[in-house]
Write a structure and sequence with these properties.
Elements lengths: L1 H9 L4 H13 L3 H14 L4 H21 L1
Helix pairs in contact: 1-2, 2-3, 3-4
Length: about 70
Amino acid sequence: IASYDRAIVLKADCVEAYAGRGFSLLNRGRHEAALASFDHAIAVKADQKYLLAFRRYVQMQTHSSKNETA
């Protein structure tokens, strides 16, 4: 995650860094932070449909995770 953060500092419009950070955060169970990373990526480049698909995937994982803990 730190590497992605450094990449974002160096190049704030690096969509791949936001997406990579989002997946890394998701893998660590940090769903809300992962959603925020994908939101940033979409804000930078909204025309990339794969980003919307990834965000939706994170939303589904977040919902699934919340149901498991309930």
